[in-house]
Amino acid sequence: MDQIIIHVDMDAFYASVEIRDDPSLRGKPLVIGSLPNERGVVATCSYEARPFGVRSGMNIKEAYRLCPHAVFMHPNFEKYKAVSRQLHEIWNTYASASQAIALDEAYLDVTEQAKDFDGAREIARTIKRRTLDELGLTCSVGVAYSKTAAKTASEEKKPDGCFEIPTPEAFVDLIIDRDVRVLYTVGEKSAEKLYSAGIRTVRDIREKPDDVVRLLGKQGRWITQIANGIDDRKVTPYRPEEAKSIGREVTFQKDVSDYDLLKDVLVLLSLCVQHRAERVGLHGKGVTLKLTYSDMKSISRSRTCYSTDSAVTIYREAALMLDAVGNRPVRLIGVSIYNLSQEEETQLTFDGFFDSGADDHDAELKALLDRLGERYHLDFAGNLEKIYKVETLHRTVEYMRRH
């Protein structure tokens, strides 16, 4: 046996945490995300909401149309993060390597601990029992020979399920006549390309591998491999330095045409990006501005720079890019840094010999925050730690928009 991998996935995580903490919600369709009168999407929903067609990622107004009697709640990310830490602490006990995919999901390499599938089965049962006993939550667990098979297995008996796929042959037998979307690397656009060529099932992929590669290139080669049960990827612990970008974005409840307000929001977003980068010890060498307009068309603009250590630098670059785009009503704005590394780079110029550097950035940041505080009657400088929280940031931005 080369490897034994467990995939753990919580059942309707956000909703389950809320139901645990408020038993009066049990048995009711519960939708976590935006409220029906707001813009936004469904983050997750309880299993009672799903028969009505409500799904994660759905527009919140569509969810309300489908299930108007549901309970709608904003997410409490600080609570979910705290529970997530407890979950991963339990799970990691049984793995030689753990790869967190999300707050509520992880791959665990249990090859050494389990020895064989009988041992892995016992570990899976123990994880489920401890998760329920200690945290009052259910999870679904997949035990398999590969990451792809383990994730497929965890979905097989949801909710509160446990399923095993011990061999590539068992994996292929399970999925061969299912839609191509059963393979997690096949997204909506890739599926549409495959459908257009008459490739609708995993069996079709296996029978027409050349067509798949022709349509999807490198991704197509990978899809043909996993359609044959081939996946030798290892469980690799997440390392912050491997991230491709660090960003933050907000969606406005009403479209914004005031580009001065957008620049003010960029100050706060840049602060959040700086904070996240500092927490993981990363520096960027480029800034990206993202905009989604009222017609749902999105654009992004990027600029390279020597270092994006400070919120001031991030803000300057993003503001310059904002000035260069057409003035249209904006639904969403975001900023991120990319080309990440653990090494800080600075550009030495003649002016740099006489520049106080960090002191100047601190002074400029204070001036920006003072300007925002005066304009919106808010004490930004005294409450930056709160701004870094998603819920507070969104409430603050909405307050700024209304004022």
Q: What key attributes describe this structure?
A:
Dna Ligase, domain 1; 15 helices; 4-stranded antiparallel sheet; alpha+beta; 403 residues
Helices, strands, pairings?
Blueprint: E1 5-10, H1 13-21, E2 30-33, E3 42-45, H2 60-66, E4 71-73, H3 77-92, E5 97-102, E6 105-109, H4 111-114, H5 117-135, E7 139-144, H6 147-156, E8 162-165, H7 168-175, H8 188-196, H9 202-207, H10 209-227, E9 245-256, H11 259-280, E10 286-293, E11 298-304, H12 311-324, E12 330-338, H13 358-376, H14 384-387, H15 390-402
Parallel strand pairs: 2-4, 7-8
Antiparallel strand pairs: 1-6, 1-7, 2-3, 5-6, 9-12, 10-11, 10-12
Helix pairs in contact: 3-5, 11-12, 11-15
Distance between the first and last residues' Cα: 63 Å
Which architecture of the domain at 241-402 would the CATH scheme give at its second level?
2-Layer Sandwich
For the largest beta-sheet, the strand count, sense and barrel status come to: 5 strands, mixed
Question: What is the radius of gyration computed over CA atoms, rounded to a whole number of angstroms?
Answer: 24 Å
CATH topology of the domain at 241-402: Dna Ligase, domain 1
CATH superfamily of the domain at 241-402: DNA polymerase, Y-family, little finger domain
Record field, number of beta strands: 12
Number of helices: 15
Poorly predicted regions are: 346-356
Strand content: 15-25%
> What fraction, in percent, of the residue positions are helical?
40-55%
Overall CATH class of the domain at 241-402: Alpha Beta
Global outline: globular
Q: Which structural category fits the helices and strands?
A: alpha+beta
Strand order of the largest sheet: 5-6-1-7-8
Question: H/E element string?
Answer: EHEEHEHEEHHEHEHHHHEHEEHEHHH
Mean pLDDT: 91
